[in-house]
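Slide 14.
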Amino acid sequence: MRHLRPAALAAASLVLLLAAGGPGASADDAAPAAAVVPRIRAAVLPDRLGPPPVRPRDLYAGAAFDACTAPPLETLRAWRDASPYGALGIYTSGGQRGCAQPRLTADWVRQARAMGWRFLPVHVGLQAPCSDLKRKPKRIDPARAAQQGRQEAAEAVEGLRAVGLGPGSPVFLDIEAYPMRDPACGQAVVDFTVGWTQALHAAGYRSGFYSSLDSGVADLAAAARAGSSPLPDALWYARWDDRADTAGGGPLTAELWAEHQRVHQYRGNVEETYGGAALTVDRNQVDAPLAG
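Slide 15: predicted structure.
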């Protein structure tokens, strides 16, 4: 995939590190390669069609916000004229969405799109097996993770179609932050995401993934280095550092999701007012294909 260096490079680097016993190790204390168990193993599924091609008009670079409930059209009209934002996140599907969506219809999307808004559709379904979020109790089953990912993708496609977003649109899988104590938990998230991506590509849609830079994104980055495929076409990482960029950091290194494939949620739960209309939003910087 375009966002990965060849798997051989990562493997070669690992072999060299093991041969040296790790930084600062001597020949006496070098561990055998068999003793090193990676946190994430490669997960590979067939991906006959691959992602839809990216056209120049699909790309968006700039500021975006996301709000728990789709805002009134009057608010979008005021913000389109007065705010720095040109795109917004909308929760189009998922059984564990945090807010009701009484306004989110095909007509709402049509009118918002006519104003010039672009969209980051979000699906909130099953969460990591080790998640401690009580308000989202439904979890991925590690034994059926890839299958469940495909099932959630089918639900996400229905949600996109219901609001008038056709093939080629991305949809971001929302995996909230989870503890990093159990490698099996991260592996289940990776397997689920590979199944999700496979099914979205087969339906003609782009796959996106949203999570914390320190949990879900860290495990997806490890999966990329391990050679997992297919992986999401765009990565939306949460790190509230007040930096309006898509530079990544930590596990999200420069060669991963590097070709207009990133969204950075850099601040959350901020009340903003433009044109006399107030909303509580999360702030994002985008360099990725969007819907609309």
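Speaker note: The helical segments are 7-20, 73-82, 106-114, 145-162, 183-203, 216-226.
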